[in-house]
Design brief:
Blueprint: H1 2-21, H2 30-50, H3 56-65, H4 70-94, H5 106-129, H6 139-158, H7 164-172, H8 181-202
Helix pairs in contact: 1-2, 1-4, 1-7, 2-6, 3-4, 3-5, 3-8, 4-7, 5-6, 5-8, 7-8
Length: 207
């Protein structure tokens, strides 16, 4: 239960920050900086308990890499989505005015979400699960900066979710359209799975 509570809390603060500062498609540098920073600190806070996934795509990547038990996958997803929903409800309480909805163009948005979810999961597998980097103190910084870089790079293409829980939370808040849910779920989950396959191929002795 400690692991699931940690996933709930970390995802809650991640999505809360997205909702209160704006998705990465927003104007200015504050949203990407805030989102990358809160992810970094929540990873340091919860990494020793749950692995600090805060992202269903990361959970599937870590599962396929062999570092997350099958029995934990669904409870992690439930905790992450519940955290996202709780964060969205909190933001709607803070900001009752309707949000501006970012509507992505399907093909470039799918590619953007795939590539940077792949990058995020690939970095996580290398800095937080590899035996070659075990015990490092920079894992949270590397992961947070991956989201920061992705948000700056393609935030205006896809909204820069890179995370199904963030995408669902943003849709509850009216920041992304529900009609594009399939796009975010497919691109991000495929990206996470692809990162695991690449990691396993490049690290055959690390199981």
């Amino acid at each position: 239960m400690r692991k699931y509570a940690t996933e709930f809390i970390g995802t809650l603060f991640l999505v809360l920050t997205v909702g209160t500062t704006g998705i990465a498609a927003g104007v200015g540098v504050i949203p990407p900086l805030a989102i990358g920073s809160v992810l970094m600190v929540m990873i340091y806070a919860g990494g020793h308990i749950s692995g600090a996934h805060y992202n269903p795509a990361v959970t599937i990547a870590v599962f396929l890499r062999g570092r997350c038990a099958a029995v934990d996958v669904l409870p992690y997803w439930i905790a992450q989505l519940a955290g996202a929903a709780a964060a969205a409800a909190t933001v709607l309480f803070f900001k009752p005015a309707a949000a501006v909805t970012f509507t992505p163009v399907v093909s470039p948005a799918f590619a953007a979400e795939f590539f940077f979810t792949f990058a995020l999961a690939y970095v996580i597998l290398n800095v937080a699960t590899s035996k070659d980097t075990a015990g490092n103190s920079y894992f949270g910084l590397a992961i947070g900066f991956t989201v920061l870089a992705g948000a700056f790079a393609v935030g205006d293409v896809s909204g820069g979710a890179f995370n199904p829980a963030v995408a669902v939370g943003a849709m509850i808040m009216g920041m992304l359209p529900w009609s594009k849910l399939w796009l975010y779920l497919a691109a991000e989950l495929i990206g996470g799975a692809a990162a695991a396959m690449v990691f396993n191929a490049l690290n055959p002795g690390d199981r």
